[in-house]
Amino acid sequence: MKTITVLPGDGIGPEVTTSAVRVLRALFEKSGRDVQFIEKKIGGAAIDTFGTPLPQETIDQCHNSDAILLGAVGGPKWNAQSMNVRPEQGLLGIRKTMGLFANLRPVEAFDTLIDSSPIKRSFVEHVNFVIVRELTGGLYFGRPSERRGAHHEQVVDTLSYSKNEIERVVEKAFQLAMKRNKKLTSIDKANVLESSRMWRELVNQIAERYPEVTVSHQLVDSAAMQLITNPAQFDVLVTENMFGDILSDEASVITGSLGMMPSASLRSDKVGLYEPAHGSAPDIAGQGIANPLATILSAALLLRYSLDMDQEAAQIEKAVRNVLSQGYHTCDLQMEQPNNHIVNTAEITDLVINAVNENQTIA
């Protein structure tokens, strides 16, 4: 039996994970797969119950799982907490504890949503790329200086990478490029940072093992501009932690909504953590209007990368496209077409499940 740990988290997290689990259950029932779901707390919900954003029982359960499905963490309720007990520390902690070093964020333009993007249709309509972000090293995990008192005049955050940390995520990016279009763009700041110079050297070394892959290097400021002015040029992008965090959020405007971006955080084996790229949206939590599609698409990535269920993953992705093409969407998405139907969280989940059940095989 396979085990999926569900970490609903905060805000709309419980609502969108409930939707994704419903879709997965429908697929498992149809395929006859024996899979159990076990729910645990993380983030603000865990702080309220355990006094910590990442309880040991959550860690233990995740270590005994084949995959992890996460909603979102954080909210103004916990803003006054000290840094080490903020909800976000639960997310950083589970990534580090589980060794999830590679974050994959697919960016695909859905035809029915292109007109809601602030970018010209001609720039967006053929976009389909993946950002591979190093997830457990770099500036976010460096050793910060302590800031004492209001008159402290200097602070330091340390950006540190080992050779192994860079090599393993770059290797993962090359493997992905081989499965796609054999094109990889490495993003760094090698004209300024020593860590980026080492990054570029290692990318070139690993590239020798993948002669079929066309490799290019791009400085992060140039890449930020190119993501908006010519996003269709990219296929697989690989970069360090902070650059990847910023660029993947920037890339969300291409699709017209952050609510459409799934993500997968992987390690060397098949265990992974899957979550939407959006936040906890506490202002709409509990209203039944949250967009669950990014979480449902993250569940498709879970099937593909952790459970080797490629066909079922494709069924979910096709079902989401079909639902959108019929004009159904949640209120955060903007569509300019005659058959425009705004539905709530549960209704769009039902529509996706129905579309999955209607397509037993992939056309």
Automatic annotation (TrEMBL):
Catalyzes the oxidation of 3-carboxy-2-hydroxy-4-methylpentanoate (3-isopropylmalate) to 3-carboxy-4-methyl-2-oxopentanoate. The product decarboxylates to 4-methyl-2 oxopentanoate. Belongs to the isocitrate and isopropylmalate dehydrogenases family. LeuB type 1 subfamily. It is an enzyme of class 1 (oxidoreductase). Its cofactor is Mn(2+); Mg(2+). Homodimer. Its main location: cytoplasm. NAD(+) binds at residues 75-88, 279-291. Binds 1 Mg(2+) or Mn(2+) ion per subunit. SUPFAM superfamilies: Isocitrate/Isopropylmalate dehydrogenase-like (SSF53659). This is 3-isopropylmalate dehydrogenase. The keyword Plastid does not apply. NCBIfam families: leuB (TIGR00169). Substrate binds at R95, R105, R133, D221. It comes from Sporolactobacillus nakayamae. GO terms for molecular function: 3-isopropylmalate dehydrogenase activity; magnesium ion binding; NAD binding. InterPro entries: IsoCit/isopropylmalate_DH_CS (IPR019818), IsoPropMal-DH-like_dom (IPR024084), Isopropylmalate_DH (IPR004429). Residues 3-352 form the Isopropylmalate dehydrogenase-like domain. It holds the Pfam family Iso_dh. Keywords: Amino-acid biosynthesis, Branched-chain amino acid biosynthesis, Cytoplasm, Leucine biosynthesis, Magnesium, Manganese, Metal-binding, NAD, Oxidoreductase. It catalyses: (2R,3S)-3-isopropylmalate + NAD(+) = 4-methyl-2-oxopentanoate + CO2 + NADH. It comes from the Bacteria. The record marks Y140, K189 as: Important for catalysis. Pathway: Amino-acid biosynthesis; L-leucine biosynthesis; L-leucine from 3-methyl-2-oxobutanoate: step 3/4. One of its GO terms (biological process) is L-leucine biosynthetic process. It is found in: Cytoplasm. Its EC number is 1.1.1.85.
